[in-house]
Every structure is written in structure tokens, then in C-alpha cells.
Amino acid sequence: MKPIQMLAAVASAALLASVSACGSGGSSSTGGSAGGAAGGSTGGSVNIGVSTSLTGSIASFSQSGMQGIQLAVSDLNAGGGILGKKVKVVSADDNLTPATGASNMRSMITNDHVVAMFGPVASSIASAEEQLAAQYKVPIFFHMANDSSLMTKTFTPYAFQIVPNTVMEPRAVADYLAQKIKKGKPITVGTFAPDYSFGHDTVSGFLKALDDLHVNYKVVKQEFPPLAATNIGSYLSALVAAKPDYVFNAQYGGDLDAFTKQAESYGFFKHTTVIGMYGYLDMKALGSQSPAGAIGFDRAPFWAIKNPQMATFVKNYKAKYGDYPSTWATLGYAAVQQWAWGTKKAGSFDGTKLTKVLPGTTPPTILGKLQIRACDHQTETPEYVGTISKTGNSKYNGVHLFDDPMFKAPFDQIALTCAQVKALQP
Amino acid sequence: MDLSAFVTQSIGALSTASSLFIVAAGLTLVFGALRLINIAHGSFYMYGALAATTVVGWFPDSGFWIALIVGPLVALVMGVGVEMGVLRRLYGREHLTQLLATFALLLIFADLALRFWGKNVRSINPPKVVNGNFGLVGARVPAYDMVIIAAAIVVGGGLWLLLTHTTLGWKIRAVVDDPEVLVCSGVNIRMLYTGVFGLGALLAGLAGVVIAPQQAVGPGMDAQIIVAAFIVAVIGGLGSITGAAIGSLIIGIAETLGANLAPSWASTFIYLLMIVVLAVRPWGLLGTPER
Fold it and tell me: Is the ipTM above a cut-off of 0.85?
């Protein structure tokens, strides 16, 4: 065999391996009793579906998002279930592939008769599943995937987004930065983001927000390493060599941890302020290597949201899983609360009825009372931005959190208006 | 670009090249002697890295140095097992058959790794002595990059000594040219094959340990590295250790240049380069045309 033939064989073999080695192996269900028919009669159970990425660099937080959902369901069931039925969670791994996510969802709807879906991590998968939600008239709640086009360009009434989206998040960060920097002071900026729609959208959203806020900045380097690349050495050394004052990083999970450690080995944090999605899980993984002085943003930090329901949730979560909840667990829990509240209000598990009653309302969740905006079904969730503390917080396992005061970016300040949203919707 | 930026990037490129070289050297060594494309080479690499994370978990202080021995040993044992249990029966078959067999092994090892180590990405810190950076003409250089580069030099030098200055090396080179003559001269060729294959696996395991403190360790790294290492080996010429060294340098530099000049195209750069080499010299820069 010639090298070229071998190469083709090796490449296709390796590609196959990356898809199949992880082994999704169908769906599994947990909790509640057996049976799964949808419908209005009392007794029995209903299924809700979670198709998400349970493998690879982002697995740790999609799993914790799933734990939030499972805890919400077991709390629901402990309170007698919903409309007289126990709720069961059906879950499957999407292997970070839209086609797998879509086929998971299809099989959950047709075989397991799920009455609601709780969304994936990657927006590309979310987008595929959103179309299925509309086709099958099954509502889908996005608590992790935050592409703003899900609620604009590809909007369907069957989709709900509780997580702050790709317009809101970078805008909140830019607002915080604009507050910190003296007006008119020139700064240099680098960006570092995974090479797919989320990374590119978030980065351009951030730069656009800087423009809107009249920040005097110059982009000196933009890098887009592949998602979950094990070796980012070349991209990082290019960024380090450009010596930016600020770096906006849109990586997350294992990728962000790897970036932080390697950047630290360059002494990068001494002269550059890195802005990244440093949530509780990341800070815990980084421990004493947490980048003090860097700017973190978080979508729902449990330690910053103060209300009795949140306190109970944190206590129960800790009792069940032995750790504090991540942002993803918190948002997952709240998303299930929204669905349950809406279903009770509709008096039915019918997806279409839910889409009639839920928009425009303010379901009580552990995040507080946040409205689900009628025009795009975006929950008015604020974004939290702050500077990472030099010292670990003794109350929370010595994890480095944000310094006080942090910035809770108000929804109205960072989101598109309904008029802007309407103009983008189909 | 100023001098400090140049230094930062050059060392970045060198360290990328070094980690690639250790993996590709093993791959190309095995191909040279056994005429076998071993996809499972990626598994040995991954198990080396995974073993390192486990050992460091047990001994947080001295763990890395222990892992430097344990990781390659794990890979060596796997390699010898694979050679004696499976591949021995496939010599002389078509390349495609061998390729498929080693591909199957890669999948099996990947599933086993999921059982043992789970799906989460793991990471370890570099040992304290090399966990920092030093200044060099205005640039900050990660000390651990030096460890990776040194490891590649030791591996490269060691292989060169082995192949050119020892009887074993002479036999390894002879087996490529004429295995039958070698058998007639009383060499236990089966042992030789097992040994070479084991050595290749050991190198992959070593590479896994060496990169573990710098990169993310987890599922999928086996398939990622095998593609990269194979590109390096093909560019340099399959079977040539020097070729692998040159190939990995080219890839390291191309990736760094790519990340600088056209960040979104950085990974495309490498494949383009490979296509060019394949078109002009299908047997690679230092390889020899298939007979």
C-alpha cells in the first residue's frame, strides 16, 4: 500500500475512532417508576429527555448540568410529582455531534414519549434539536447552549432559553471592562476562542460591545484553536508573543483549565488581564492555580444568588452529590422548575399548551423571579462579572471566587430589545 | 515581530515539535522494521498519559518522576502483549489487514480506558522544579517546555546510538532489508520484532507522560495524536527517524506560523503541507520509494 492510501485509511480510521470510541450506546433512564405514557390521566409517570455531551473535555459540566436536572426531578417527585404523575429523566450522550443529538431526541420522543427536552451544550446541536422541537411540538429548554440565534434567526415557540445568550454575555463583560478602564485610555486586546460558531459569535459580540461603549482598543491577536484540542501550544505562544493588555477568552471547561495552566507557565497573568468564563467548577479544578486578578464571568453562580430557595437547593445538592452546584446544575434545576410551573399552569403535558401559557410569565425558580420574555422566550437572567480573588473562600472549599463588589449586569442593559429580536426572527 | 516575541514563538514551535517527535519516532521505528502501520500507537500514548495522572494522584510530590518510569512501562507491557497476542499472526498479510486489526485495538483500548479512567478530562501539574518560567531576552519561557525539548533530544540521540552503534541496531536495520538472511545468521527474529514493537510502544507511553502536565488528558487524545504523528511520519518519510525529526519540526513551525498569519487556517496549513509533500515526494522527505 502506498503512503497516500495508508494515510487515507489512517485518517478515516482515526475519524471513526473519535466518533465511535466514546460509545453512546442508546439512552438510559433514571428515577421514578416504570412506564412512560404521555397523557392527561393521573397515576404512572412521564418522561423528560436530556441529550447532552457526556464525553470529552466538556463532559464534567454537562454531567453537572444533568445532576441539577435530576435533583429538580427528584424534588418534584418528593412533592407528589406533577399533575399526579411522577417524572422520569431519560438521558443520552450526543458525542458532541448534531446528528447524534438529533437522533437521540427523535428516539426519546418516539420511543420514550418525552414531554419536554432539556438542551445540549453545543449550540450546533441545540440548533438541530430546536427544529425537531418544532416538528414534534415538544418544548425544549436550553440551560447550557446560549447561541442568541436560537431565539432569533431560528426561533420557534417551542424553544426556551434560560441561560444568558451570546449577545448578553459578552456585552456584560464589556460593560464591566468599560467601568474599570479610564475613559479614552488606549488598550490592546487579544481574543482566544474555540473555532466554531459559539467562539466566533462571542468574540465578535465582545468587540462590538467595546465599540458601542467607545472603548479605545486595538486588537493585536485573535486565535481560534479547535474545540477540545489537546495541544494549543502554537496558538498560545502566538497570543503570548503579541503581549495584549487584555485577553477575552471564550473557552470553557477543560479547554479553559488547560489554557489557564499553560498561560500561567508563561507568567502571562502578570501583565495581561485575562477575561474568561471562570465558574465554580473551573476554580475548583484550578485550585491554587486560579488566576487572581483575572476577570471572570458566570451565568448563575450559586454563591452570589441569595434567596431561601437557592439556599435549600445548595444544601440538597451538596447532600446528594457531595459538592456545591455548578452554574450548569443551577440553570438545569431552574429550567426544570420553569417547565414544571408552566405545565401545572397549563394543566396538561401538551407542548403546544405550554407554549401558550409560559411566555411572558414570571415562574418562581431558585434564580429568583425572572420573567420569560414573550417576544423570544429568553429568561431575563442577569450575567455576573467580577475579578477573581487572590484568596480562596474558606466557606466554599477554599475555591477562589469573585471579589466584592461584583457586577450583576441587568438584563435590560445587555440584551437585544424585543424590536431588535423581532427583526431577526423568521 | 520583536525579539522576545520571536523567542516565545520559536520555543513554542520547538516544544510542539518535540512532543510530536517522540510519538512519531516510535511509529516510524515500528514501520521501518516491521512494515506495519500501528494505529494502536495512539492508545499507548494515551495510556502513558492516563497512567501519569493516576500516579501523580497517588504521589502528588514525586509522582511525575515515578510516572516517567511507570507510564512507558505500562505502554511497553501493552505493546508486547499486542505484538505477541495479535500482530504476530498478521505479518506478511496486506497492510490493510494489519491496519484494521490495529484500528480495532485502538477502539478496544479506548473503551477500556473509559472503564478505568472515566470520561472526564484529567490534568496534572508539572513537577515543582520546572513549574514556572524564566526570562530569555525579554520573553518569559515556560520551564516545562525545556523538559519536553530535552526529552525529544534524549530520545532522538538514544535511537541514533541504538541504530548505528549497537549490534541490536544493526539487526533492526538488517531486518528491513532482508529478514531471511538474518534468520539464517541465527538471529531470533520473533524476539526482535517483539522488541522493536515494544520499544515503539514504550516511546509512545513516554510521550504521553511527558505531555500530560502540559495538555488535557482524556478520551479522544489517542485518535488526535495518531493522525498528527502519522502526518509527521509521512512528511519525513515512513521508517526514517531523522525524517520524523524533520517532519515534526516542519509541523511545529507550520502550526506556529499558521497561528500567527492566519489563525483560522492554522490546522489547514498542516494538511496542505502534507499534500504538497505527497504530491512531490510520495515517499516523504527522507523515505525511500516502496519497492
Answer: no
